[in-house]
Amino acid sequence: MKLYLIRHAESYGNIKGKIISTTDFELTEKGISQSQRIGQKICLELKQAPISAYCSPLARARQTLVEILRSTSQENIPFTETPFLKEMDLGLLEGMTWEERRKKYPEVDLDKKLSLLKAPCGESYQDVKNRCETFVKEYLEKETNEKNILIVSHGITLRVLTNFLLNRPDEDINFLNWMENTALTKLIWEKESHTCQLAGLNDYSHLKELQTVGYEKWGLFASRDYWTG
């Protein structure tokens, strides 16, 4: 089956310049446009097979999925909201600026040490990995191989899910860049053999003028190419 992993579009939380995980924000107007743009990008591919769609229950993910389905003229397709796809609960980091986090919790590195992360009064990397594994067992393993699977989730959770599906070592996630809003990661998954091939990683070429300002500075941090390992 083909898996289309998409990070939610820009929300009002993204433009605050603060760390946001569990707080619920809706999409900005730009975010709605981003959602429509990725829908247009994958429209023809999605229509080549039956679709199943999943998303986080947070508004920014749900709204992104709704806009994608609408822009592909498949708004009547039912979708499943599951807490297994929610963003990592960052606990006491919630609402801090990135600079405040660096000063108060210098040991917490959401970029290059994600595999070791335990958010203060929040979730750990292993907690999120366990959720991703449960999502695969409860949902993906019950799908058929001819399906196109659309998954809309969040920045950290999608990094963890991608690494898990590819059966890569935990430490490899530290070389997986932040995914841009509505970036597409495409995987080909054989559920019987539990093998997965990476067909596209963090593709945000569709965004163009809708790209997040400064993304190249904060989002692309990896010191080696995750694709080639």
Present the secondary structure layout.
Layout: E1 2-7, H1 29-46, E2 51-55, H2 59-71, E3 79-81, H3 98-104, H4 125-138, E4 148-153, H5 155-165, E5 184-190, E6 195-203, H6 215-218
Parallel strand pairs: 1-4, 2-3, 2-4
Antiparallel strand pairs: 1-5, 5-6
Overview of the molecule:
The chain has helices at residues 29-46, 59-71, 98-104, 125-138, 155-165, 215-218; strands at residues 2-7, 51-55, 79-81, 148-153, 184-190, 195-203. It has 229 residues and is α/β, with parallel strands linked by helices. It is 29% helix and 16% strand. Helix 4 crosses helix 5 (155-165). The model has no long low-confidence stretch (mean pLDDT 95). It is globular and about 50 Å long. Strands 3-2-4-1-5-6 form a six-stranded mixed sheet.
Bin the strand percentage. 15-25%
Mean pLDDT: 95
Q: Helical element count?
A: 6
Please state the oligomeric state of the protein chains shown. Answer: single chain
Distance between the termini: 23 Å
Radius of gyration: 16 Å
Low-confidence stretches: none
Helix content: 25-40%
Structural class: alpha/beta
Order of helices and strands: EHEHEHHEHEEH
Strands, total number: 6
The 3D shape can be described as globular
Largest sheet, spatial ordering of strands: 3-2-4-1-5-6
Largest sheet: 6 strands, mixed
